[in-house]
Each structure stands twice: as C-alpha cells, then as structure tokens.
Design goal:
Blueprint (H helix, E strand, L loop, with lengths): L6 H11 L4 E7 L2 E6 H17 L7 E5 L4 H12 L3 E5 L5 H11 L1 E6 L5 H4 L7 E4 L9 E2 H7 L14 E6 L9 E5 H14 L7 E3 L7 H14 L2 E3 L7 H8 L3 E4 L1 H14 L2 H9 L1 H15 L6 E4 L6 H8 L5 E5 L9 E2 L12 E2 L4 E4 L4 E5 L6 E2 L3 H6 L7 E9 L5 E6 L4 E2 L5 E2 L1 H8 L5 E7 L7 E6 L1 H4 L3 H15 L11 E4 L19 H8 L3 H6 L4 E3 H6 L1
Parallel strand pairs: 1-11, 3-4, 3-5, 5-6, 6-7, 10-11, 12-13, 13-14, 25-26, 26-27
Antiparallel strand pairs: 1-2, 8-9, 9-19, 14-15, 15-16, 17-18, 18-20, 20-21, 22-23, 24-25
C-alpha cells in the first residue's frame, strides 16, 4: 500500500505510474466525458500555470464555488500545485454569506463552476479574479477553457511542508456564522493514510462524489482519500439523474448522510411494500435474487464500505439495511478533527454506536460527559479567531466536540446528545432531544423531526411527514403518530414524555435555511420561526396538530 505525504504527491504518483487510468467520468448534457490521469493532469498543470500568471502572492487564498464535478477536484489540485490555499464554498449559499467568506478569508481569486442559482449568488463576489467554467454556462472575466488553451503545463512543483496550511474549510454550522477551520497538509495526509490502512478496497477503486465537496467529510473521505488511492471519480449530472448515475457508477465505497439512507429506503418501499419485501426475504433462493436486484439498482452491488455520518442514524434503519445484506457503518468526525475520530469498520460494526477510535486517536469524556478528541490531525485553529480557537481545547490539548457521549466496555462510542441542543422546559428540567428524535424516526411516516419545549411543561415533536405518511388518510396518519408516542413515552423520564406532535406545513430544506448543506436540521432556525406557537399547540386538545389548520384558526 502506497503512503503519501500530500494529496499533490499522491496525484503526481498516479499521473506518472497509471497515466491511462480513468480519473474522472463527468456527465455534460447526458454524455459522459472521461479524463485519464494523464489528460486530467495536463488540464490541472495548465490551470496551475494560469494561477501563477495572476498577480497574486504565493500562498494566497483561492476559493471554489461549485457543485461536485471533475473541475472542482482539478481546481483543488491546481491550487495546491500553484502553491496556494483553497477555500471551498457551499454551492447553495446566498450572496451575503459568500461575500462574508470571501472577504474574511481574503481570497484573491475564485473558481465558479456548476451552480443552480449563480445569478443571485453573483452579487456576493467582490472585485477579485473570477474563473468561470463555460461548460456549465458560467461566463466570467477568465474562463477555465481559455486558460487551459492559452497556458503551458506547469512542470516545477512547489516545495511542500507538512505544517503548511492547505485549506480553510468554513463550517456549514447549525448555529452562528461560518468559522474558517485551518488544516495543514500533514493533517489531511494523516487522515487519508489512516483511511487506507483501516478500510480495505481494491486498487484504483471507483468513487461516487455527490455530497458537497465543501464539507470536510466529502472532501477528505471521497476526494482526497480517493486521490491517495488513485481512484476513478464519477458524479451525478442532476437530482433527476442521480439514481441512474449512481447505479451506473457502482462505487466500491459509498458515503451518505442518514436522510439519504432514509430516502433510499422510501424509494425501495414505494416499489415493494414492507409486507411483500418481508415475505420475499424469507424465501431462500428468492431472497438472494431480491437482495442482489435491490443493491444493483441502488448502485451498491460492488460496495465494500457503506458509511453514514454527519448526523446520527437510527438503529432501526441500520437493521433494515442489514436484512438486505447492506451494512451501514456509522462514522464520527467533525471539521475541526479532520474527520479522524471514531469509525465502525467492516468486521467490527456495532449498530447504534459511532465505532471505536481510529489509530492515533485518543478519546475521553469530560466531567460533563462531553466527548473530547486528541490526534495529530486536529485543526491548527479557526482563521483569525484566536480566542475562539483557544476555547475549543481543554488544558490537555483535547478538542471539545460539543457532543455528549459514553463508551461501552468494548470501546464503542455512543453519542447521546449535543451540549448546545439541550433545552429546558418550564419545569426547569433539561432534555437532550437527539436520542428521542432517533426513536421517533423509526416511524416510516416521519421524514424529519425536531423535539422542542422551551417555555412549556412538556416537549412537543415538530414533524415533517414522509411520502409514505403523506399518502395516508388523516385518520391513519394520526393513529400512526399517536401510536409512536404511546410506545415511546413509557421508556422516557417523566419530564421527557412527548405531549403533542405538530405536522409542519412547509418542508425543511437547504433553500429555506432550515437544513444545513449536509441535511441536518438547523434547530435554532426552526425554533426561531415556531417558538411563538408552542404554548397554543401545547394547550390544543388534539394529540396531533396540523400547523396549517392551527395557524388559520
């Protein structure tokens, strides 16, 4: 197994030793364009020469604003090759946040690629060098295509050091303003080399990149880890083509957030209801055929490591996939620890936990039960935020994660809540909503849930119903939700028992600011909108309340 000192060193190795291997499979208007390590490398080298030709100092910050595509990864490598520092930006952010990040990071240039809403976002870009990618309809001061045409390939590589700053990753944040997490070349290398050590995959595996590359998990676990392995990268062209693109890619490693695992389940059950699926899975030969057909259609037929992260996944969902022969390994990490923390791994997977600490990682719990992490891959700090950086570490140099957890006797870590997510009812009792929300998500009629209760005696559950739930009659849906509460409440402490379920009239999405780009509920935003109604909902005599009806009364 090859170990590398940097992503650039890994890429240069594969460019030299496997030049004809496929690097990218990028769809453009329904047609796939393949780039080999050689042809992709030539493009990267020409873009690097173009960056060097810009009148900006060495180690300048250069931003990338785009959905996942081959050019995203090529831009990242070109920035490294030219001796600069990358600043990824979420492709769904609004103009104000884009401007805030570009100005705070002092970015001198920006790559602008595949986007859904660039006309609105454009006003957030200050007077810096803009490189648009015409293949996605972006026409800017400079174009990717003309830079490739007009510049020779770069031949002299930068002198890299392990403690050089490689990237500033701005957190999506469920609360507050984005913070710029600084990671060195050494941090990235340690995580990627550790991943290669603990996850067995074929040489030159197939990867599928679709979660935002601006998020640390996709950036490190898919893009950079894939470069270390000399992988082939495929991308979805659109949301509509996602399922067929994934089926065509058949990746060896697949990473998703819990909401996506739930959506896959929903789609399977649309075509084959649970009762029928249960029957099929009990028949020996038919069972194997059904499982193979489902995994093939999902795109997971060749998958050797299916992972879930970014938010807790329900044990019931993991168990459901187990019956299909798919083991979903829950992993745990954050931007600040470069996702080098705790993983479940093949052969040592325990549902409901986030696994055991990875090699080189020390985990401990504070007196309050907060999970604290120490490794050589911890962030070098928040950019321009010394005080905030200092507040994230304890006196022994452990990173304070903000998560509450406990270890079992085998060293597996259970996450039981978030320090900041805890809320107090008007009885003065604190509630950690996370574990209760996961129990509610066992009900397939529920797509998303946010347990709240500030200023009322008992908590209430704000719920977005799933497609399955929406197809039910009001009577059946109410019975289903009331049944879940009746089943769950006896297992909860008295102050935790759920009083009501409120069905929201509007979905929580990234676009309306109620989900992060990694599909986590922005609890503080949901609370801000709905807190004024808690009291009237609590006093309503119905057990299941429909927000639309309630607000119209």
């Amino acid at each position: 197994m090859n170990k590398f000192d940097s992503p650039l060193a890994a890429f240069l190795h594969w460019e030299q030793t496997t030049p004809e291997n496929v690097f990218f499979k990028q769809p453009y208007n329904g047609k796939i364009k393949e780039r080999s390590y050689k042809s992709g490398g030539a493009e990267i080298r020409r873009i690097s020469t173009a960056l060097k030709a810009l009148d900006i100092p060495l180690k300048s910050k250069i931003a990338i604003l785009s959905k996942n595509c081959a050019e995203w990864i090529m831009a990242d490598l070109a920035i490294m090759m030219a001796g600069h520092i990358s600043v990824p930006i979420y492709p769904t952010l609004g103009a104000e946040t884009i401007r805030l990040i570009l100005e705070h990071s002092e970015s001198k240039a920006i790559f602008i690629g595949k986007l859904d809403n660039y006309e609105e976002q454009k006003r957030g870009i200050p007077d810096i060098h803009t490189i648009g990618i015409k293949a996605y309809g972006i026409n800017e001061e400079l174009s990717w295509e003309s830079l490739v045409e007009d510049h020779p390939p770069l031949t002299k590589m930068p002198d890299e050091k392990q403690d050089d700053l490689m990237t500033i990753v701005y957190t999506s944040g469920t609360t507050g303003s984005p913070k710029g997490v600084m990671h060195s070349i050494g941090n990235i290398s340690l995580t990627c080399n550790t991943a290669m050590e603990v996850i067995a995959l074929p040489d030159h595996p197939r990867f599928f990149s679709y979660l935002p590359l601006s998020h640390i998990a996709e950036r490190v676990a898919i893009e950079l880890h894939g470069i270390y392995r000399g992988a082939t990268f495929s991308f979805p062209e659109s949301l509509e083509s996602f399922a067929s693109d994934l089926e065509s890619a058949q990746p060896h490693l697949f990473f998703a957030v819990p909401r996506i695992w739930s959506k896959f389940q929903e789609k399977i059950l649309e075509k084959m209801p649970q009762k029928k699926l249960n029957t099929m899975l009990k028949i020996p030969i038919i069972s194997g055929i059904v499982k193979k057909k489902i995994t093939q259609k999902l795109g997971l037929n060749s998958c050797m490591f299916a992972a879930s992260g970014a938010a807790p996944i329900a044990v019931s969902l993991q168990q459901w996939y187990n019956k299909l022969g798919i083991t979903v390994h829950q992993c745990y990490g954050m931007t600040e620890d470069c996702i080098l923390s705790h993983y479940n791994l093949p052969g040592s997977n325990k549902n409901g936990t986030v696994g055991r600490s990875l090699p080189g990682v020390i985990g401990k719990l504070s007196k309050e039960g907060e999970i604290c992490i120490k490794s050589a891959a911890l962030m070098t700090g928040y950019y321009k935020e010394q005080e905030l950086t200092a507040s994230m570490f304890d006196e022994e140099g452990f990173l304070k994660t903000g998560d509450i957890g406990e270890y079992d006797h085998d060293g597996y870590l259970f996450i039981t809540g978030r320090v900041k997510d805890q809320f107090k009812t008007d009885k003065g009792k604190y509630i950690s909503p996370g574990p209760i929300e996961l129990e509610l998500l066992k009900n397939l009629d529920i797509d998303q849930v946010c347990l709240v209760g500030m200023g009322i005696p008992q908590p209430i559950a704000l719920v977005i119903t799933s497609l399955v739930g929406r197809r039910k009659s009001k009577q059946d849906l109410n019975a289903s939700l009331e049944g879940s509460i009746a089943e769950l409440n006896p297992t909860l402490e008295k102050h935790e028992k759920i009083e009501k379920v409120v069905i929201m009239k509007e979905d929580w999405t990234v676009d309306n600011g109620l989900l992060t780009p990694t599909l986590k509920v922005k609890r503080n935003q949901v609370e801000k909108i709905h807190m004024g109604f808690y009291k009237s909902w609590f006093e309503n005599k119905e057990k299941v309340i429909y927000e639309k009806e309630e607000k119209n009364n």
